[in-house]
Amino acid sequence: ETGVTQTPRHLVMGMTNKKSLKCEQHLGHNAMYWYKQSAKKPLELMFVYSLEERVENNSVPSRFSPECPNSSHLFLHLHTLQPEDSALYLCASSQDLGDEKLFFGSGTQLSVL
Amino acid sequence: GQQVMQIPQYQHVQEGEDFTTYCNSSTTLSNIQWYKQRPGGHPVFLIQLVKSGEVKKQKRLTFQFGEAKKNSSLHITATQTTDVGTYFCAGRNSWGKLQFGAGTQVVVTP
Q: Which of A74, A90, A76, A72 is nearest to A29 (CA)?
């Protein structure tokens, strides 16, 4: 238990579906992140939030839409995904931005059919 | 842009043997972190190195940060089956951006 909880653990969706991934951290951290992990590739940073403000967007397709309603919750809204979007989506948090270690959730294994 | 390369990509180790995995950055880093991800699990923070030439030990794991702060290594002695997993390095550049390597997948043979 890392203090970062992600739901669902597994998700299968069609290309026309709309779904949301949820992340909640119980660590009192100020920064939250979405990462994409594909096989044989480095972790790809998708979005960064600090104190509920988005601070980084690494050219992620608009079919991925993040939402951070408060410093403890982070969502990733998905719509009209492509099969190549199938991957493990990891949420992480850190005390603050900068030289901080990341605490990862267990991830959502997403399969797009 | 900044790139972080890890070698080897795969490491098969006999239980009880030692091995080393390496991390190389194309740019000078302000610090470097190491994470371990067990099969089916998520990355877990192991350590952070900040100073040039720094060496830190955690039981059988020895982490080193190069003098030029562009490379790092993780050495494991007397490998055990519990060491199975993928080890990632993540280098932070002077702008604060954290870049992960692709990881070294370690398989331990009893």
A: A72
Tell me the one-letter amino acid at A39.
A
Residues of chain B with C-beta less than 8 angstroms from the C-beta of A104: 42-44
Query: Distance between CA atoms of B74 and B101, rounded to whole angstroms?
Result: 13
Q: How far is A91 from chain B (nearest CA, A)?
A: 10
Q: What is the mean pLDDT of chain A?
A: 93
Cβ count within 10 A of residue A57: 12
CA distance to partner chain A, nearest, from residue B15 (Å): 24
Question: What is the separation of C-alpha B52 from the centre of its chain, rounded to a whole number of angstroms?
Answer: 16
By residue count, chain A amounts to 113
Chain B residues near residue A43 by CB distance under 8 angstroms = 43, 88, 90, 100
Strand partners, B69: none
pLDDT along chain B (110 residues), means of 10: 89 96 96 96 96 97 98 98 97 89 95
Do A102 and B102 count as a contact with CB atoms less than 8 A apart? no
Q: What's the CA gap between A26 and B85, in Å, rounded?
A: 26
Q: Are the beta carbons of B31 and A99 separated by less than 8 Å?
A: yes
Task: Tell me how far apart the alpha carbons of residues A45 and A23 are, in angstroms, rounded to a whole number.
Answer: 15
Put simply, the answer to whether B42 touches A45 (Cβ < 8 Å) is no
Residues 6 or more apart from B16 whose CB is under 8 A from it? B78, B79
Q: What share of residues in chain A are helix, strand, coil (percent, to 5)?
A: 5, 55, 40
